[in-house]
Amino acid sequence: MEGPCDANERVMALSSCGLETEFCLMHRIVVTGGCGFIGSNFVRLMLETHRELSIVNIDKLTYAGNLENLADLSGNDRYAFRRGDIGDQSFIDTVLAEAPVDAVVNFAAESHVDRSILDSGPFVQTNIVGTQVLMDACRRAEVPRYLQVSTDEVYGSLGAEGFFTEETPLAPNSPYSSSKAAADLLVRGYVHTFGFPAVITRCSNNYGPYQFPEKLIPLFISNLLKDEAVPVYGTGENIRDWIHVLDHCRGIEAALLRGRVGEVYNFGGRTELPNIVLTKTLLKLLGKGENLIRYVTDRPGHDLRYAIDCRKAEEELGWRPQVRFEQGLQETIDWYLSHQDWVARIRSGDYLKYYEQQYGSRLA
Ligand code: NAD
Ligand code: DAU
Prior knowledge:
By secondary structure, the chain is α/β, with parallel strands linked by helices. It has helices at 4-15, 19-24, 37-49, 89-97, 113-118, 121-140, 175-194, 216-225, 245-258, 275-285, 311-317, 325-338, 340-347, 351-359; strands at 28-32, 54-59, 79-83, 103-106, 146-151, 198-203, 205-207, 230-233, 239-244, 264-267, 272-274, 293-296. It has a domain at 7-207 and 244-268 and 301-323: Rossmann fold, CATH 3.40.50. The strands form three sheets. It has a seven-stranded parallel β-sheet, with helices on both faces. A three-stranded mixed β-sheet has the order 7-9-11. Strands 8-12 form a two-stranded parallel sheet. Helix 7 (175-194) links the parallel strand 5 (146-151) and strand 6 (198-203). The longest helix has 20 residues, at 121-140. The radius of gyration is 20 Å and the shape is globular. Residues 32-33, 35-39, 58-62, 64-65, 85-87, 107-109, 111, 126, 130, 149, 151, 180, 203, 205-206, 212 line the site of nicotinamide-adenine-dinucleotide.
């Protein structure tokens, strides 16, 4: 079995070439969760940027997975979709046996904190067990590279000062973040025990096109477009660091190409905002009044502040966020304005039941 050092040497050898040359060595990758928000942006970006690359997208199509997100790729012979669960061993073995795979990038997850508070079962199953099954399948198929897409929430919550670095101890506070931290620890254990060639990335809050309208920015935009109230948890003082989804995707691309095995890379947008400031910005950009704000019961265990130190990714991977928040937010609003059918189709399905359970009469 190859050790982490051997795997690192191979990556260093790859990294000594130019980006395109380097990536020519990767002909076929598997992406999981590619029908979700970040996964679909990543698949499109990679196919556009790397002309020799083929992608197989494995997705279970949960409530958050939407084939429409990649409908523009239908007929593209460099893209293939396989519907299935990352926790289904024989299914994953079959996909990995179809042809040699140069890397697996694992986006598949239950991703919404509020849903993990309502029911943590699917989070344990997909985020932890699914990651274990996927990594074991990669080991059997001798996949030479694995990237685990993780989150800054594994570090817990900050006070008014300081930043999360890759050395910050894991201290997750929600069922969602605990399941992601458990997966990260499994990845770490596989690297150290088996020489499994994995890299972990941890990113702050993403925004941009194709985000499911249960998360703050798309939820608030979609409500405001219909003159509906927006539910601000607690006092709105909680702070998140916002990053455009394409900056996150470019970070994952850089970590896939140049990240060292066994290492963690943080990504953030250097855009810290209290939720109430972001809410008022959205109201202003959409020409709505503050009468649409509803302060509702706080999220249990609500983390106060996230802030990312991403110097390691900047120095080692040559990555930095490129999208200015003001521009990215306006473009995101424009995208939701021109994709109201996309939102309407989502909102007419199972999502209605969740919305009623989560917010119910609180928005009256
Ligand atoms: P999302 O909820 O929009 O998409 C998740 C996708 O995974 C969906 O297409 C869903 O169908 C699929 N999926 C779920 N369970 C599956 C299973 N068992 N097998 C196969 N597919 C399954 O999530 P997202 O916001 O795009 O997040 C993607 C990843 O990035 C997650 O791992 C998340 O933890 C991480 N992340 C998200 C953010 C953020 O701000 N959204 C920030 C940092 C990290
Ligand atoms: O930090 C990265 C994480 O960001 C990812 O790992 C998660 O997958 C992603 O969902 C996101 O988690 P958050 O809980 O930070 O995102 P959300 O959009 O749910 O909430 C952002 C902030 O807004 C948070 O402080 C809670 C608050 N909020 C959220 C909703 C949905 C509200 O005040 N009202 C709401 O209705």
